[in-house]
Specification:
380 residues, mainly alpha, two-stranded antiparallel ribbon, 14 helices
Length: 380
């Protein structure tokens, strides 16, 4: 009996530590982002609130909370929350509808709880990834059919993207739709069958553009910001001034000039412009390489994931990270029109940071199973 017990112990599979390289990449970006936020936001914080530590204090609190949630989620087996995905999606949709009625201002994106604000679209991004992954894992044998492989998954992300678009949150709608399309392709759908959906989307976007003066001004400003340097062109021009004045090595940490109420939203959408001005193009390239490493490592974890559902979840999360980062960099460099999209780990926003770190926790949790074999632990 003793020998039998020892034999059983030897056969037990020890669940490995989560993926350390991915974890280190997350912490690096988080700490660099917090340092950048303090420098980029203290002038505006002092002007608006009288407290130069306003942004960094609140963001640091959410960062600590987010790290705690990330570590908790990394220990929480992903198989357990599979059963709560549909209720989570329904709650997210309800919150997206609710914010249209209780949200304040012209941009109805936030539900206010005391002095804090909560952005339902951040939850919707996660809910879409989880539900589409669950759907594809269950119906993967039918993904070659238009109804099962294209139409139903498109409805899943289309409902959320449409509601976010009604909030006038264009970048959020683009992000949700883009990640949805990535998951559909990764799930094995016939790419050619996406053409009708794509044509409908192009037709809809064209119609919105031709009937919306605001959108037309955005595109006109993007093409020629110098035509209205004190109006619509002010923000992209100030961003380009910041990036250009940084040069290769930057002006030095804390020495940005554009953050002194020249560049709008230096603590949020245009925080990377301030980083380029202070730290230079070399450091900016290094930061982008860390982002790239995180995405590549994420796809590697997805390729080793134990099942189709977990693999697709990781693909969706890292694709969201990649697309959002690329769009933000393109906006601040005036490669595309201003869309109001934040930079992950850097931009000010408590809801976005906590949800992002929770997503990183999901990837870390799945990475625990990614390198297991039936006979034991497989090395990375």
């Amino acid at each position: 009996m003793a020998e039998s017990g020892q034999s059983l112990k030897k056969k037990r599979i020890k669940v490995p530590m989560f993926d350390i390289p991915f974890f280190v990449g997350v912490l690096l970006l988080l700490f660099i982002g917090l340092a950048t936020l303090f420098s980029a936001g203290y002038a505006k914080a002092l002007y608006e609130t009288g407290n130069s530590y306003y942004y960094i204090t609140r963001q640091a609190i959410f960062a600590v909370l987010g790290i705690g949630i990330m570590l908790f989620v990394s220990f929480f087996p992903y198989q357990w929350y599979n059963r709560f995905i549909i209720p989570f999606y329904v709650v997210s949709v309800v919150l997206l509808v609710l914010v249209l009625f209780v949200g304040k201002g012209t941009e109805k994106r936030w539900i206010y709880i005391g002095s804090y604000q909560f952005q339902p679209s951040e939850l919707a991004k996660v809910a879409v990834i989880l539900l589409i992954s669950k759907y594809i894992a269950k119906h993967h044998e039918k993904m070659h059919k238009f109804k099962d492989g294209i139409l139903i998954p498109s409805l899943i992300f289309g409902i959320c993207a449409g509601l976010v678009l009604v909030e006038t949150h264009l970048s959020g709608a683009i992000l949700i739709a883009s990640v949805g399309v990535v998951l559909i392709i990764a799930g094995g759908a016939n790419v050619l069958q996406l053409v009708p959906i794509g044509l409908v989307a192009v037709a809809g976007a064209t119609t919105v553009f031709l009937t919306n003066d605001y959108m037309q001004r955005r595109v006109t400003t993007w093409l020629n910001p110098e035509a209205d340097p004190l109006g619509d062109g002010f923000q992209p021009l100030q961003s380009l001034y910041a990036i250009g004045s940084g040069g290769l090595t930057g002006l030095g940490y804390g020495k940005s000039r554009q953050k002194y109420l020249y560049l709008p939203e230096p603590q949020n959408d245009f925080i990377f412009s301030v980083f380029c001005e202070e730290m230079g193009w070399i450091c900016a390239t290094l930061v982008l390489l860390i982002f790239a490493f995180l995405v590549i490592r994420g796809f590697y974890i997805a390729s080793k994931a134990p099942d189709r559902f977990s693999s697709l979840v990781v693909v969706g999360i890292v694709s969201r990270l990649a697309i959002q980062t690329i769009l933000n960099i393109m906006v601040v460099s005036n490669t595309i029109p201003v869309t109001g999209i934040s930079l992950p780990f850097f931009s000010y926003g408590g809801t976005a940071l906590v949800v992002l770190l929770a997503e990183m926790g999901i990837v870390l949790q799945i990475s625990r199973y990614a390198f297991l074999e039936k006979g034991g632990v497989k090395s990375a």
